[in-house]
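Dear colleague,

Thank you for sharing your sequence with our group. We've completed the structure prediction you requested, and as agreed, I am returning the results in plain text so they can be pasted directly into your records. Please verify that the sequence below matches your submission; if there's any discrepancy, let me know and we will rerun it promptly.
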Amino acid sequence: MVKKSVWVYVLFLLLGLQATAQTAVDDTIRLSLSVEEANVHALQHNRTLKKAGMAVEQAEWEKIAAIANYLPQVSANANYTDHLGAQLTLLGQSITMEPSSTLTIQATQLIFNANALLGMRMADLAKKMSQSGSELTQLAIIQNVNSVYYSILSAEDNRRLLQQNVENVRKLAMATRSMVEVGISEQTEADQMDVTLANLENTLKSTERTIEIAYNSLRLLLGVDAHVSLQLTDRLGELLDTTDAYGLLTEPFVMNLHPEVKTSLLSVDLKKEERRMALATYLPSITAVYQYNEKLKTSGFDMTLKQNITFTASMPLFSSGGNYAKAKKAKLGYLSAQEDYQMLVDQMEIQDKQLRYNLKSALETYEIQQKNILVSKRVFENISKKYEQGLSSSLELTNASNSLLTAQGNYIGAVMNLLTAKDELAKLLGEL
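Please find the predicted structure tokens below.
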């Protein structure tokens, strides 16, 4: 028994330590994500996407409610009447009206109502539009996550390059001051190097602020709290695959499969149904009502029927032009939706051409900047060596440093533009 008690105590102690460790981990949550994992996380936790999913669910319940309108409706009511001692004289005889109570059960069934039938169709179209809208939201979330992820990686690469440049220029500045002290170089050379170093350090700080802002944007897209620490496991060069980019240029664009086009087509169908609903106001509505009455307490005189069934047909005869005006308005709405669809198709065709052009241009720029950065690095290294040997001036070194920084920025920008252009075309083609 003692041994058993000891083991139970140890077990509880271990569980307590585990719970404490879990709390400590939860206090500093860390997420290590590749770009694909970031997309999966965003699709599961992004608040905008959650709202889009709720809109789809709401549309589903709206459809169910529309169908229910055409199904039997059953209601029950009970009443109690006290005639306060009143008497009814019938054939010379007085009949005291006793209190009465009736339970009534009523079932109503629409036999024909065009608006109710069309309402079911419209609810179904609204659900499909919500689903299509959710697809568009998903694509937008993925594209935004990719864009912010790329921008963070590019900024971090730029920071690493700046840190290297700062370190190199700091060493050269120290060497310049040493040369000034021994009289080999002039003070203006040292001052110029100090200014160059200060500008680089300021650019580095600005880049660090940009990175923090980008991480906060990514947290919002992922649907995580501000205290969550994010670590990006992919690297910019790993994500860049020019083979995929060139392959994407050969992919055909299937217009009617794009969610935005599908939504526009559904909007045309919805306006068409609204037009039919406006015309349906001229049609009759037929309803059947069955009523069952159960007397819970009868008065002295009671002619209430036990049960009955009633058929009602109603049809509008004159609305002072109101129904005609609604029909004309619905027709114009339908024609306008058709124009919107055709305009969207034209825009999509132009967008397809433009995005393909953008991707081709981004590929060409990337290849040029690849070569340019190699040349700039060689020039900077060559002038740095000459400067250390006193064969070049600080101005030449500053110009070479600025040229290298520009080349590095242009290269990173070219990588970003290529990835962005690739994603935009992939989104249009449904390959994102």
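Summary note from our side: Strands lie at 30-33, 73-81, 87-90, 93-96, 100-112, 229-232, 285-297, 307-314.

Kind regards,
the structure core
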